[in-house]
Amino acid sequence: MTKRRKLILAAGALATLGLAVPVGANLWIADKADGHVYAAADVPPAPVALVFGAGITADGRPTPYLAYRLDVAKTLLDTGKVEVILVSGDNRTHDYDEPTAMLDYLVAQGVPADRVVRDFAGRDTYDSCARAQRIFAVQRVIAVTQEFHLPRAVATCRALGLDADGVGDTVGKRYSGPWTAGARREKLAAVKAAYDVVSGRDPILGPQEPGVHDALIAASGD
C-alpha cells in the first residue's frame, strides 16, 4: 500500500470517528432525557427546581435568557410544582456573582427569599447537577433552562443519579440569532457532557450545604 493510500485511509478513519463521537453523544442525551421533558403545567411535582446560570450583565443583572429561566422557576413555585428553587451559577470572582443576581431577581418578582438557595460553584451544567446531589443532598429536581439546553441538562442530572425531569423556556426564541446559535452549540456540548459523565470528574467540592434541607423544612411550615 502506498504512503498516499495509507494517509487517505487514516484521514477517512479520523473523519468517521469525528462524526461518530458527536452523533453517539447526542443519541445518548436524547435517550437519557426521553420522557422527562415537560411543559410547566404538566411536569410532575418535585421538591426542588434547579436553575442553571446563563450569565449576568455588566451591572450585575441576569441576562434575558437567565431571567426567562427564573420566570419559569417562579411559575413552578407559584403553581405548587416545587417548594424550593436552587439557583446554581458562577461566582469565581468577587465581581461576578450569578447566584446572588438570580436570588435578587426572584425576590424582586415576589419570591420569598427563604425559598431560594444559592450554589456559588455551578460553573457548568455538569457541576450544577453534581453539586445539587453531592453538596446539597438533593434527590429529585425539576431542571430549568432554555428548551434547546434542556435535554443535556436532564440527561446529565439523571446520569449522575438525580431523579430529574425538566421544563424549558421558549420565550427566548424571540432572540432568534442567539437561540439558533445555542441550539447548534448543543451538538458539540453533548460530547463534553458525555465525557464528563464517563470520566466522573469532581466538581468544586466542599462541606455539605444544609440550605436546601432547611428551606424545605421552612416551606413545610408555611
From TrEMBL:
Keywords: Signal. CDD domains: YdcF-like (cd06259). Residues 1-25 form the signal peptide. One of its GO terms (cellular component) is plasma membrane. Residues 48-162 form the DUF218 domain. Pfam families: DUF218. PANTHER family: INNER MEMBRANE PROTEIN, PROBABLE PERMEASE, INTEGRAL MEMBRANE PROTEIN. This is Conserved membrane-associated protein (OmpA family protein).
